[in-house]
Model the fold of this input.
Amino acid sequence: MLIGTIIYGVVGYTALVDDADPLDALYWTFLTIGGVGFRDTEPVGHIAELFSISLIVLLVVGVASTAGVAADMLASGEVGRLHRERRTTRMIDRMSDHYVICGFGRVGRAVADELTREGTPFVVAEIDERYVEELEELGIPYVMDDPTHDRVLVKAGIDRAKGLVCAVDSDAVNVFIALTARGLNADLTIVARAADPESVPKLMRAGANSVVSPYELSGREMARRAIS
Done:
């Protein structure tokens, strides 16, 4: 807005004031928007004076608009969100040989707890913003976006990662994540969750190294405890 106002002033003064060159126009523009005015240089006439008024009005509108946008950002927490995103991005950029957990539901949270106990670095990629507060409280670096997109996995450092866990509730989404991740890092170890047994071969073809069924594992554990 400021640059546009300056260009508007330079072009206007150059066109309206006789024998004015762009440097003169730039000087007058700064005098005008600075509240000084430029009548001390030469008489310019009513048209140029009206133009000066329009220039000041444009600047005032620009300042008011900027202040309004800033106030909205502060009120909505946008500034805090942007600060958290920059801080998290710096954390992720320093990581290597870490793991990327796609999905922070019940399975993803359990994986995160285990990696935390092991002292293994990891990043969470999650699309549901309901988890932001919990991730912040736990100090877990995260990317709040759709992990099926290349740019999201790249932002999570997939090229430097050691492994990826597909823990989204949807088998179809996990297939797509595995396929995308394998294309970005051929050496990645991919472990995927599958609710439907028919999804297991699809996940393997998509690039998963191993597939786990939480329901099957819990059923086996329950049976083991029941007969022990």
Remarks:
- The CA atoms of residues 121 and 161 lie 10 Å apart.
- The first helix runs from residue 2 to 16.
- The domain at 2-76 is CATH 1.10.287.70 (Helix Hairpins).
